[in-house]
């Protein structure tokens, strides 16, 4: 056990407690950014003018008619920007564009006394467009060579030799859809100018520091002139990592120009048509297996659908490549990645950050090839697990591969998998029109930001004279329970009951230079920082207590709000009394904490290193039932065993696992982003731009029986109090549902049927898979067999393998120079 | 005129400067009641759910959950509303709030107040309470049953069948009588729903001193005649039908609003504004209900939920429809007249009402006429209804055919719009189909009868073989289109399989009509 991971006696971490804001949530008293509107005087409302073209030049923009609308106060355009007209960190996202890059791109913003006035003003703005040719689908982009950013290659061994050596070689293609975040709270910012020109922005953002940076560069200010606060978010899921900045900047610009508070809140239609989503991908692949079904080689080219700007597409792609192996050992590997540039929203971070997409490619390959190999898909998966001593294709040793095995065995055992598979076989034999199937899939997910620099965090802990504790850290709360965990970490480190500690909203003037709350790393990083700050205070208090108790400071113990010496017969001091005493002795009762993850390195130019502190593991078994008449299906039962290390907060972790699973199932089965790919004037428009057409999982998609267990004996040395990150990995457990659907569809055909299943596997897609199986047309699906097979396209030599600027923090910040 | 006023969380509150198009959600938020959230503004997410006091058939009150984003604020005049803030406070949580908080029912919390309201409506539903016997406000399992802890090991292991050792009839009802469909109109992006289900299933009955429970025994507020006149539009709720028809005669272009589940979406999402909106939802003449030997009459302004309760299973085909029509939240507002008034080709009642051979009674200031539903629709969202007319009631002739089914093809099982909908009413006597009526939605510009298929079935034996032949005919009915919901080929394929599915599930049908 390390100093970081070791828990004291009776720790508050590990206790099952409700979310720290639960009582506020359920009574409607928890405040979100837009709830401040009713509390803000003289507020103006912003409303965008959205372009009705996928790609066009703005040839005329006349705002005068809008100003004639009663209640319209101002129209913000590019001319108003005192600083940099850009909402991103790559300088490819003009905030007020002269060239429209996607259908719904906002060209200017109207400020009104009421939302209705601003809306009517936006309708009145006159814009002329010169339509330009557009690229809408990934396939079109591939054909047109429309790419952006780096084109990395991850390579190990000799893929040609591996394929030549293989007993079976298959090749195929796979294209799958992205996903809309659909956080229930849409993007929202309220900006106002405080005393002395200080800009204060309240924003629903996962990355307050970057929101601050972008607001500052748009306004031409320094970071210390802008403060960003995030009370809490009504969901983020990655969608508020890069996307909030521009809207916050519009609000801030409006506030500085009018001197009044400005609110920019996207309604759902605006949010879904303007903000980025999970990347859809296209993949071409060749794979080789030996006679026993062991993977020999994988050759693949992944092309992500980046949308109109680079955004986070490069690190997303990097993570996709780093996760294509999932939990499987593949000796010879060559995987190329590229990012298409399309006239769509700028695709961005989404829970899993490319990892799910990379893993889906291989899981799809295994699902399609298992019947062709004549091997049960579960056996095929299990047979290919990593074992101790093996390393990932990018060179990181796979630590604890036995945990995937333990989770698998536990799911098989507690889920009665063997006997249920027999029942399913009997059911299928007895039912012509309904088929069931059970699939079991693993997850191995690397934790840490690929870019080493982001793996740092800060915290600020105050102990007040009365003994009460206030903590502040750089992470944001979006429902994932980070604040709950941080309260537990602080209470544990200080040895006080949970209710002694309160947490204040995340603000850039409390903790500076924070990383995004992302990559599942919120608790690892901020927990390290909170613990560090609390330890500083505890050590100082131990000096005071040691003097009082007559024991060496190292022998002072803090527990449950009482302080005593190591030996049990010593006196006890109440925490609050000790604090008061320390105050009178002029002991500093607050501390800034800092944490950096040790032992990481990553070279993106050669795609090698050890970018991850550890891997999180999990296994899920899902059973579905498919109706052969319609393709409609139900998830009958799901069993999950997931590795969260030693849980910091079991109720929170359970919630992350279940919620992540259902969200993943939504992506893979239900959620259908349909873009207009026709040549009509609406080309490029998102056809499913509302909750009525873009369907999220509802109660009907919840597994009827849902059993989740946390893997036991799962202590993690490298993280705070032995825990592991939990935000993203469970999403990928939902592969089990997709594979079960594939197997159930195949059960309508003869044994050994390989079916292609579109993603998302909507009832319609499942129906076509059933038809495919019934027609026996597809013993091979669209998989080709034989060496050399269809060779995936290889990168052309002139494109940088990694973008020189990729993954580097914004270098172009408006740096203070000595002359100022 | 007195200022417009609603009772919100027990306090009389002026409706103030609302416009005709202001919805209840925006108004409540302006009052500082920001527990109501906007997640979609189109009735899909339930983040805006509130409780309103609505009349029951026996003269009492039912706390009814509705989507505040769709309801015109003006229609709250004289009504009683409760929001999540009014149910409890952090220091004195309502039983529903207590269960939700303790069991991890909230993560980001944004959907939570809406869930709490929908859950509270079901908590207070009298039929549920009569069926379950938990102690007041009880948390029978106690503690944090979602997580059993064992060192660092936690489990959430729940099968409804195990809970409380009671048998549960299906996956959509709790041992306490809680109907999960009560939450079908609420979306949560964070939790995956399991803890919310467990919270719902753990609820007991309201306590003796529960004020909202006691309120159920008093009559609901009577509808107020209301008028909001602003430069950008007027909202009028007439006192009775003659007044309504009179206004409609003078202003044939007035927009009728009943549950506002269609109109509210047009206002919020499409930015539609009407010079005159006529609220007809509370008109007694449109809220009639009667069953005689040969006909059932359903008032046009009855909500689908009210019809479901009052029919109490008398029309099995409608009973199949209700749970598949939108969500409970929507059904609490949506009226049957509104569904026909909208006349959407993918509306769900028309295929069913066509199969039931229903007719509509149209009323105007000039009098009434009855039109068979099969003659009602004339084109895309068009009907024989003339300016100045409204639907007063819907008539369903009795007896009903023995085999009936409603097949709704959609992406999601709860709360989705049909890509194809089929209503079947088939009478089989002595193994022979004596009467077949099939209504289709989603396959043409209007809901249509599958006349060719009906002909192919009638007079033939109810066997797999003849059904297969008729299914081939049915596959060719209508002219389905491609859209984001489904491809035309899938829609046709679904027409082709619907009859096969019906037969597979009713191979030996009841011989006598219900
Ligand atoms: C989230 C959501 C889900 C939905 N799901 C479904 C679904 O699954 N199936 C389905 O069929 N529909 C669905 N709908 C549509 C809608 O709920 C129904 O059409 C409903 O029946 C409309 O009734 P209403 O009283 O709310 O109509 P309103 O919105 O009040 O009115 C709708 C139209 O009908 C007219 N009208 C209303 N009453 C009368 C009358 N008595 N006489 C003449 N005209 C009248 C109005 O003028 C207006 O044009 C859904 C809507 C939403 C928001
Ligand atoms: S805001 Fe989504 S249903 Fe009202
Ligand atoms: S808790 Fe976040 S949407 Fe339900």
Would you write up a description of this structure?
The complex is a heterodimer of chains A (820) and B (514). Chain A is an alpha+beta fold and 820 residues long. Chain A has 3 domains: 149 residues, Aldehyde Oxidoreductase, domain 4, CATH 3.30.365.10; 189 residues, Aldehyde oxidase/xanthine dehydrogenase, a/b hammerhead (Aldehyde Oxidoreductase, domain 3, Alpha-Beta Complex), CATH 3.90.1170.50; 380 residues, Aldehyde oxidase/xanthine dehydrogenase, molybdopterin binding domain (Aldehyde Oxidoreductase, domain 4, 2-Layer Sandwich). Helices cover 28% and strands 23% of the residues of chain A. Chain A has 19 helices and 31 strands. In chain A, strand 19, helix 14 and strand 20 form a beta-alpha-beta unit. The longest helix of chain B is centred in the last third of the chain and has 18 residues. In chain B, the strands form 6 sheets. A 5-stranded mixed beta sheet of chain B has the order 2-1-5-3-4. With 514 residues, chain B is of the alpha+beta class. Chain B is 26% helix and 22% strand. Chain B is built from 17 helices and 22 strands. The C terminus of chain B is likely disordered. Chains A and B meet through helix 1, helix 3, helix 17, strand 30 and helix 19 of A and helix 2, helix 3, helix 4, strand 7 and helix 6 of B. One FE2/S2 (inorganic) cluster (FES) binds next to loops of chain B.
């Amino acid at each position: 056990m390390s100093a970081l991971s070791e828990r004291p006696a009776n720790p508050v971490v590990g206790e099952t407690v409700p979310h720290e804001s639960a009582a506020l949530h359920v009574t409607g008293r928890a405040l979100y950014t837009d709830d401040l509107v009713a509390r803000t005087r003289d507020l103006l409302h912003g409303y965008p003018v959205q372009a009705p073209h996928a790609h066009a030049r703005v040839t005329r923009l006349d705002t005068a008619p809008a100003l004639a609308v009663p209640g319209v106060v101002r129209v913000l355009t590019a001319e108003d920007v005192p600083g940099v007209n850009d909402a991103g960190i790559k300088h490819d996202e003009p905030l007020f564009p002269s060239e429209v890059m996607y259908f719904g791109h906002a060209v200017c913003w109207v400020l009104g006394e009421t939302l209705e006035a601003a809306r009517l003003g936006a309708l009145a703005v006159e814009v002329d467009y010169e339509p330009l040719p557009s690229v809408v689908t990934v396939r079109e982009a591939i054909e047109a060579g429309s790419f952006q950013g780096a084109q990395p290659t991850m390579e190990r061994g000799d893929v040609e030799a591996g394929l030549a050596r293989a007993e079976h070689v298959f090749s195929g293609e796979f294209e799958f859809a992205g996903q809309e975040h659909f956080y229930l709270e849409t993007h929202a910012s309220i900006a106002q100018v405080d005393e002395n020109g200080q800009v204060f922005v309240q924003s629903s953002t996962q990355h307050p520091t970057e929101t601050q940076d972008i607001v500052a560069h748009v306004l031409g200010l320094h970071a210390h002139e802008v403060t960003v606060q995030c009370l809490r978010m009504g969901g983020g899921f990655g969608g508020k990592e890069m996307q909030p900045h521009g809207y916050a900047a519009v609000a801030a610009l409006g506030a500085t120009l009018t001197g009044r508070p400005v609110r920019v809140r996207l309604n759902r239609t605006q949010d879904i048509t303007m903000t980025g989503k999970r990347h859809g991908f296209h993949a071409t692949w060749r794979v080789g297996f030996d006679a026993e079904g062991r993977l020999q080689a994988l050759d693949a080219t992944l092309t992500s659908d980046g949308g109109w700007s680079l955004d986070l597409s490069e690190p997303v792609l990097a993570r996709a490549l780093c996760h294509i192996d999932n939990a499987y050992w593949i000796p010879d590997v060559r995987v190329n990645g590229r990012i298409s540039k399309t006239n769509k929203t700028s695709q961005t971070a989404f829970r899993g950050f490319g990892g799910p997409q990379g893993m889906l490619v291989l899981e799809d390959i295994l699902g399609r090839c298992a019947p062709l190999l004549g091997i049960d898909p579960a056996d095929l998966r299990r047979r290919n697990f990593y074992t101790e001593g093996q390393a990932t294709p990018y060179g990181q040793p796979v630590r604890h591969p036995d945990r995937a095995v333990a989770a698998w065995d536990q799911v098989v055992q507690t889920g009665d998998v063997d006997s249920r598979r027999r029942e399913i076989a009997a059911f299928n034999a007895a039912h012509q029109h309904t088929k069931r199937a059970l699939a079991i899939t693993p997850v191995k997910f690397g934790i840490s930001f690929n870019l080493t620099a982001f793996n740092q965090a800060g915290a600020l802990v105050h102990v007040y004279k009365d003994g009460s504790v206030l903590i502040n850290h750089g992470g944001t709360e979006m429902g994932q329970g980070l604040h709950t965990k941080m309260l537990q970490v602080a209470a544990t480190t200080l040895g006080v009951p949970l209710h002694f500690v309160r947490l204040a909203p995340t603000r850039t003037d409390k903790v500076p230079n924070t990383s995004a709350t992302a990559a599942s790393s919120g608790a690892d990083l901020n927990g390290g920082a909170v613990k560090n700050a609390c330890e500083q205070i505890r050590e100082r208090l131990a000096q005071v207590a040691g003097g009082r108790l007559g024991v060496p400071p190292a022998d002072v113990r803090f527990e449950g709000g009482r302080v005593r010496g190591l030996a049990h017969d010593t006196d006890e001091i109440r925490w609050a009394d000790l604090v008061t005493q320390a105050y009178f002795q002029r002991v500093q009762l607050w501390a800034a904490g800092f944490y950096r993850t040790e032992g990481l390195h990553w070279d993106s130019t050669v795609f090698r290193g050890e970018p991850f502190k550890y891997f999180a593991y999990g296994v899920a078994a899902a059973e579905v039932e498919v109706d052969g008449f319609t393709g409609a299906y139900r998830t009958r039962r799901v069993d999950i065993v997931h590795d969260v290390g030693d849980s910091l907060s079991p109720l929170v972790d359970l919630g992350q696992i279940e919620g992540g699973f259902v969200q993943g199932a939504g992506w893979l089965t239900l959620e259908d982003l349909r873009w207009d790919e026709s040549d009509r004037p609406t080309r490029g428009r998102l056809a499913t731009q509302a909750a009525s057409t873009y369907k999220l999982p509802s109660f009907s998609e919840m597994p009827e029986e849902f059993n989740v267990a946390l893997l036991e004996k799962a202590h993690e040395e490298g993280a705070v109090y032995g825990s592991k990150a939990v935000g993203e990995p469970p999403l990928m457990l939902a592969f089990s549902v997709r594979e079960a659907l594939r197997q159930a569809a195949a059960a309508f055909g003869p044994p050994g049927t390989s079916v292609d299943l579109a993603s998302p596997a909507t009832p319609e897609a499942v129906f076509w898979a059933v038809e495919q199986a019934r027609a026996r047309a597809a013993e091979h699906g669209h998989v080709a067999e034989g060496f050399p097979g269809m060779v995936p396209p290889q990168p052309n030599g002139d494109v940088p393998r990694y973008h020189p600027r990729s993954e580097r923090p914004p270098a172009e910040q408006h740096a203070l120079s000595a002359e100022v | 005129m007195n200022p417009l006023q609603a009772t919100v969380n027990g306090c009389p509150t002026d409706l103030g400067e609302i416009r005709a198009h202001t919805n209840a959600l925006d108004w409540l938020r302006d009052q500082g009641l920001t527990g109501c959230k906007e997640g979609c503004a189109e009735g899909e997410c339930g983040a805006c759910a509130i409780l309103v006091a609505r009349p029951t058939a026996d003269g009492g009150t039912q706390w009814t959950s509705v989507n505040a984003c769709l309801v015109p604020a003006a229609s709250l005049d004289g009504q009683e509303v409760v929001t999540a803030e009014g149910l409890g406070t952090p220091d004195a949580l309502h039983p529903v709030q207590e269960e939700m908080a303790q069991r991890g029912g909230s993560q980001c919390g944004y959907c939570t107040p809406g869930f709490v309201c929908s859950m509270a409506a079901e908590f207070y539903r009298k039929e549920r309470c009569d069926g379950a016997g938990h102690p007041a406000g009880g948390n029978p399992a106690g503690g944090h049953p979602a997580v059993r802890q064992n060192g660092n090991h936690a489990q959430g292991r729940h099968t409804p069948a195990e809970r409380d050792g009671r048998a549960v009839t299906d996956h959509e009802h709790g041992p306490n009588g809680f109907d999960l469909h009560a939450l079908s109109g609420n979306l949560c992006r964070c939790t995956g729903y399991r803890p919310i289900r467990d919270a719902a299933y753990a609820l007991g009955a309201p306590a003796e001193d529960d004020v909202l429970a006691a309120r159920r025994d008093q009559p609901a507020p009577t509808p107020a005649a209301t008028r909001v006149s602003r430069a950008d539009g007027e909202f009028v709720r007439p006192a009775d039908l003659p007044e309504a028809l009179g206004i409609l005669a003078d202003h044939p272009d007035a927009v009728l609003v009943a549950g506002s589940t269609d109109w509210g979406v047009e206002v919020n999402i499409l930015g539609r504004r009407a010079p005159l909106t006529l609220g007809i939802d509370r008109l007694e003449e449109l809220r009639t209900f009667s069953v005689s030997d040969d006909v059932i009459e359903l008032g046009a302004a009855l909500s689908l939920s009210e019809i479901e309760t009052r029919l109490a299973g008398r029309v099995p085909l409608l009973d199949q429809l209700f749970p598949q029509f939108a969500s409970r939240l929507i059904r609490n507002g949506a009226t049957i007249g509104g569904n026909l008034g909208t006349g959407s080709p993918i509306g769900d009642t028309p295929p069913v009402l066509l199969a039931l051979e229903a007719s509509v009674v149209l009323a105007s200031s000039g009098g009434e006429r009855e039109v068979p539903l099969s003659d009602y629709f004339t084109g895309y969202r068009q009907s024989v209804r003339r300016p100045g007319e409204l639907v007063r009631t819907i008539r369903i002739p009795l007896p009903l055919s023995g085999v009936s089914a409603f097949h709704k093809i959609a992406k999601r099982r709860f709360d989705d719009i049909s890509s194809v909908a089929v209503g079947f009413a088939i009478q089989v006597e002595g193994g022979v189909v004596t009467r077949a009526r099939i209504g289709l939605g989603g396959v043409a510009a209007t809901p249509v009868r599958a006349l060719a298929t009906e002909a192919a079935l009638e007079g033939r034996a109810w066997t797999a073989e003849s059904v297969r032949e008729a299914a081939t005919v049915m596959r060719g009915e209508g002219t389905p289109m491609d859209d984001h919901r489904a491809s035309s080929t899938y829609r046709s394929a679904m027409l082709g399989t619907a009859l096969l599915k019906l037969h597979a599930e009713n191979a030996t049908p009841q011989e006598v009509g219900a």
